[in-house]
Specification:
mainly alpha, single chain, elongated
Length: 338
Amino acid sequence: MYIKRNIGWGLILRYGWKNLIFFILYAGGIFSIYHFLDWKFINIPFQPLSVIGIAVAFYIGFKNSQSYDRFWEGRKIWGGIVNYSRTWAMHVLSFIQTDDSDYNKKVHQEMIYRHIAWINALRVQLRQPKSWTLKENRMVEKVFDKHGERNLSCNEAYNYVNSEEFKDLQKRVNPATHLVKNQGLEIRELKDKDIIDGFQEDQLQSVLEELYNLQGKCERIKNTPFPRQYGYFSKVFTWIFVLLIPFGLLDVFQDYSAQAVDQIGVWHVILIVPFSVLISWIFTTMEKVGDNSEDPFEGRTNDVPMTALCRTIEIDLRDMLDEESLPENIQPKDYILY
């Protein structure tokens, strides 16, 4: 999640430098052919282009709206994970009480730490790429690789469960699911020992059920690609439009410059280059904004900051355990909070 109020031009150029160079060369080439080779027949009326532009704008607007909905749903789901994490810790601390304070502390820490392992395992699972994952240019990908938030080595689950449980998790297809399952098995064991009663067992199991629901919602977004008929044809229509733009502007500026002297007319016509580049950059940027919001769990510039949320949960839960050496909040890297 980008946290700076204004996006720096350095980041903007990382995303758009290839397109800008292409648009400048392309529009410049069209102008050169039109003016120096006197190919006047290549100009096309601007009116049809304006209709195409309106249609493309509506299409991109719809795509961006639906893409943002996916991001916002992902953020709301993780807001629920934060809230139910605190609820889980509160139930564990208040329900599991015996005359043995050392035993209480051991069980409290084991169950709360296992929950911290669950959120980290879920985060890492959601960050793994799919076949439809967006691929940026090398300059952008270098930033993400440098920050290292999409690597499996970021899985911190081994810090919060015993070695035997962690070895078992390594063999599992979905480690996060088994961590919640292990919580349920421990709750049943506590009930069998009469440490908790039936009502307390039901309350704890209800929280685990909600955690499964939240995990399933995340997996639904992660495993369901944005409908490709919208994502793909949005790109196709945008590029058809921007490739036609210089031809339409030739006609516009030619008509405007006809009333001027020849030299001034040339400079009026040459305005097609900056105006064509500007219009093309705006439309392709609008289209790319939607692309970057389709999958909110990829660990990119505008995605849900799951690493920071996991650390926030960890700090809160370990503070509820009255621990003193709490970790620091996650800090942004190059204004990106992961």
